[in-house]
Amino acid sequence: GDKAFAQFLTDEIQEEKKIQKHKSLPKVSGGWELEVHGTEAKLVRKIAGEKITVTFNINNSIPPSDEEDAQEQQKPDEQEPELTSTPNFVVEVIKDDTKQTLVLDCHFPEDEIGHEGEEESDIFTIREVSFQPTGEADWKDTNYTLNTDSLDWALYDHLMDFLADRGVDNTFADELIELSTALEHQEYIKFLEDLKSFVKCQ
């Protein structure tokens, strides 16, 4: 059984490498620096008096596909539909002269329909906003967290503009999806390779 499993994994790794779009991770434009630790990625950008960091984790970032739809539409020889990684991401804005960090928890809605009747052109939404003490690893649950579900739209729009002014806009979000998808695929191939070594190990 293990031999067959290892052979299957060898074929699978070859296939995945064939369809791998990026041999190296795509860059995010706008002067963002990338740090990757396993499945977590962090983008950092410094602008006048501020440091902006965007953190995301590729685990569980691929939305579930509707199995039945996929099977009906798929012709026998077609490639499987491309998987896209749309992780939640956290934006932290740190001002040099304050001890507080503004934290915005953002995500990609599963259905990009937005609110009916509005020109909802943003591909990501802000879910929660809070202040956290700068430099502390553990965020406090006792800090007030603003949930945007019940938020005044004008305030929400200002928050989105605030992010856009710091380079977190639709273009950035598109590039983040591209980066995350490439990173997820790279980690998946690495996982298959590790699994193969593990299965072959006697």
From TrEMBL:
Question: According to the lineage, what is the superkingdom?
Answer: Eukaryota
Q: Which SUPFAM superfamilies match?
A: Mitochondrial glycoprotein MAM33-like
Keyword Transcription, does the record have it? yes
Q: Which UniProt keywords apply?
A: Acetylation, Adaptive immunity, Apoptosis, Cell membrane, Complement pathway, Cytoplasm, DNA damage, Immunity, Innate immunity, Membrane, Mitochondrion, mRNA processing, mRNA splicing, Nucleus, Phosphoprotein, Secreted, Transcription, Transcription regulation, Transit peptide
Q: How does it sit in the membrane?
A: Peripheral membrane protein
Q: Where is this region: Disordered?
A: 58-87
Tell whether Acetylation is among the UniProt keywords: yes
In alphabetical order, the GO MF annotations are: complement component C1q complex binding; kininogen binding; transcription corepressor activity
Kindly list the places in or outside the cell where this protein is found, as annotated in its UniProt entry: Cell membrane; Cytoplasm; Mitochondrion matrix; Nucleus, Nucleolus
Q: Name one GO biological process term.
A: innate immune response
Q: What is its main location?
A: membrane
Question: What InterPro entries is this protein classified in?
Answer: MAM33 (IPR003428), MAM33_sf (IPR036561)
Q: Which family does it belong to?
A: Belongs to the MAM33 family.
What name is this protein filed under? Complement component 1 Q subcomponent-binding protein, mitochondrial
Name the gene that codes for it: C1qbp
